[in-house]
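Methods — Computational structure assignment.
A single polypeptide chain was analysed. Its primary sequence is given first, followed by the predicted tertiary structure written as structure tokens.
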Amino acid sequence: MGIEGVGARVARKEDKRFITGGGRYVDDMVVPGMKHAVFVRSPHAHAQIKKIDVKKAQGMPGVVGVLTGKELKADGIGNLICGWMIHSKDGTPMKMGAWSPLAVDKVRYVGDAVVIVVADTKGQARDAAEAVEITYKELKAVVDATKAIQQGAPQIHAESDNNLIFDWEIGDAKATDAAIKSAAHVTRMKIVNNRLVPNAMEPRAALGHYDKAEDHYTCWTTSQNPHVARLVMSAFYNVAPENKLRVIAPDVGGGFGSKIYIYPEEIVCLWASKKTGVPVKWVADRTESFLADAHGRDHVSMVEMAFDKDNRITGLKVDTIANIGAYMSLFSSCVPTYLYATLLSGQYNIPAIHANVRTVYTNTAPVDAYRGAGRPEATYLLERTMETAARELGVSPAELRRKNFITSFPHQTPVIMNYDAGDYNASLDAAMKAADYAGFAKRKADAAKRGKLRGIGMSCYIEACGIAPSAAVGSLGAGVGLWESAEVRVNAVGTIEVLTGSHSHGQGHETTFAQLVNQRFGVPIDSVSIVHGDTDKVQMGMGTYGSRSGAVGMSAIAKALDKVEAKAKKIAAHLLEADEGDIVIENGEVKVAGTDKSLPWFQVALAAYTAHNLPAGMEPGLKETAFYDPANFTFPAGCYISEVEIDPETGVTDIIQFVAADDFGNIINPMIVEGQVHGGIAQGIGQALLEGAHYDGSGQLLTASYMDYTMPRAGDLPSFKVSTSNTPCPSNPLGIKGCGEAGAIGSPPAIINAIADALGIVDIAMPASPSTVWSAIRAKKH
């Protein structure tokens, strides 16, 4: 391990510009002649648009244009799509309702965009937006997915009867029913996974610029995958031909999944730029983000877990209703299906599993991937059920899990996934030791003497990361491949540029990707530049989500480095008059093994470009490209333990300790990994204790600001005890599994299990706020 190579705790290179205010975000971009946009959004959850009058707004100071959905449609701009086809169990395709970037005849949730106003300043655009007069005929709304599929519920899209998008299943229903029927014990639960708002630090933004002289479009956007944005906007939305559209995602202040998708605003800003003849910038305010960003989670499930007389799981049956919101977002269909139900085996050897998933339209913001995307929902369901089963059976939650762990790999689950490697006992043992699990009874008794309720909870999670291979996801309905690309350019002076299709929005790629190069060639990481986020600079790539940047993105870089290394060795062998097999590259030098003959790295690079003395037939230059499509998903796993103390008089829950023992395979930078885990746990604690998006019966979002939507603060979080074990992933050349989502996946059930243990109850709803906990205490007493 070098000082800056793989495994080193290197401080992030990019942090210098971020913490000194030197970041370049979309809102920092200024284009000559640029104007500002404000969207007029529906105040109703469900209504017909009877009339739009823009005359008054058009005449206001500074206004450049006031544009409607009818004009957008007249120009041939297409509807937004869902990019993953799911078929119901009867073979019929999912019912995708039309989603116009600007609503034309009907609005379906509060925040639905109806009109764009473009003006010299944002203030002028806002004033003019208030002057737009829209006449609505309000319709009945439905926000609860379980009610939306009932007969007589308001019909949101004509395409879907009773608002049902698809009714999908996976697994063996007969075998599962038989296991439940013959079981010695069955644990039954209703599991609700609460709706969340992502709340990235930087709100979404878009700047569209149409250059009439060049007939060329440029879109600066807060995107996690700019190449996919360009592809979809050109191929499906008819905004611009792909060869005439450049998409740039500069510094992006967090994404968490919510910036994967293409939203109406990017499309409309590009179209409005051509329509008005000026560059158009839109930046969301925080209330817009609450209303119009894709939300996460929102599942209601019934679960039955069957055990034999030896407490081994024999079957798992799950029936889930997933709220998709008013429209199908880009990847919304795969989240409650192939990213959720395929992980219902968890870390356990379960011979029979069956899951049925119904997805439903409601008059709420669209729901799509949010940190973990389906995996948190699966883990929460499974781990809450396991903890409850242990208490019903009167056995240790830890030992019930241990008895049912998968211990032999590879392991084929009944729900598609083939786990390639893992050691779940190692994570469980590490977590229990760090948490002093054996000493909990004494701590509980001590807390009781102080009038406090103390509880301990556990969660053993597994996730599927990388979201590949392409052939597999294609067979399951994905509209794109999920490979990654890389180009490694060695400059004539030996500095290196890595162009990657992955995108960094807080993950530290500029550091970790450079560490990989340093490990290979010994070049200082300050001599390595990472280029991403610009479709004119980087060849086609698939972006960052699903903890794929290491396992897939860095594997593509490794393949390109292999090619560069092979060519560099050929050049060096020629220059040093040595056998190519004897050449080694280390510490910035190219050497002949076993001799004192060497060349500095830059000299080999220079030789490649001067081309004065290259091997016969070799092309000049030192630049290579690679695409990587892995053979399997990766499977990070771990064990989390939470210990809480509750004040029975107020319902306030304090997290006394939180332990995370993870297996991420090989690790590039332990410090960055720890930061990712810390951030994920903070979000998971937010879901468990504080966060929840709530609509009233008419479809108004009641939690549309930080006054009502509670985010975790430093005082809500303990100091985390984190550790890692390592079973390298055999499915990629670097042995990486991924770490970005684990904390958000494993932490909510650990917290809720601890609270249920403290209160001596079966279940409590998330978020377990003080009022919710206090009510549960009172309900138990009475």
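Note: The first strand starts at residue 35 and ends at 41.
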